[in-house]
Amino acid sequence: MSSVKHSSDLGESVQEDQGLLSLQPLLEYGRLPWMRSSQRAADLYNSGAKLWTKDDLSDIERQFSQCYTTKNFIVRRVDGTTVQIPNPMYGVARPIWKPRVKFQEYWTLVHSEPDGPLETYYCSYLVDWRNQTHRQFEMPIKGYKLALQEKWQLWNESVTCESFKKHLRELLGTRKVNKVVCFGLGDLTARPPCWWRIQNNNSVNKEPEIGFVEGSMMQHWAALTLADMDPQFTNETKEIVRLKGFEIVGQYGAGGFAEVDDETVVFSPFAQAPVAQIIADIARPAIFIIRRCDENLDEDW
């Protein structure tokens, strides 16, 4: 015999089912926080939000320049909020750690989960630290001054130099350029790491360590005029570029970007920072010279 439930019975059954569902725990697992933040970062970027601004980069450079009297660093996130990062070198009389900017470029924010806590997921730049103790004991490469002069002469007399100048003149045309800003030129006098010295200990060259900085030398000579940003320069290298009439800015890795405007030539051969992405947010330089990027996002972007 068939039976029919009364409507009140059906309502009670639905309420019971909903009650049971409400008592069940909401299961969140896996990468849900990262998925939400990456989607939010992508939405912000697609709506026109800037990952970097000149003001932000100049501000963090200023904070780092006062790092030993600053208790906390303030970092602006891409969603407009800020976070405070404690300064472990605050009040230290003889600090061995120097702050520098660590960039988290677009692909880190939307494609590759950052290493830090959730609060850093919207940060396009963070605070990093570099130990300076080895600089106190390392002497510069032997014979670097003579090598610099030789490489300078070779560069000036080379077909590559002449071709480089020719292409620059053609690209510039009648456009006004007031400076050249360079990123990632490399140091000229810093000694190579121990593993490199061991591998090249039996080199036939009289000064094998010169080979370690030859690329940097040629890159410096290719940069004819510059406001250079490289926080890893030794004091000897800083003196060399100043004697050539150059200026070094952005000792902590961020301030050099504030020098770029629409009347700038940007030269960035092997910078670790995502220079192309940062420049795209803050300026449209007259010429941008950068290494060719391949399709491996993790390596080139």
Automatic annotation (TrEMBL):
Start and end residues of each SRR1-like domain: 166-290
Name of the molecule in the record: SRR1-like domain-containing protein
A matching Pfam family: SRR1
InterPro entries associated with the record: SRR1-like
Species annotation: Tolypocladium ophioglossoides (strain CBS 100239)
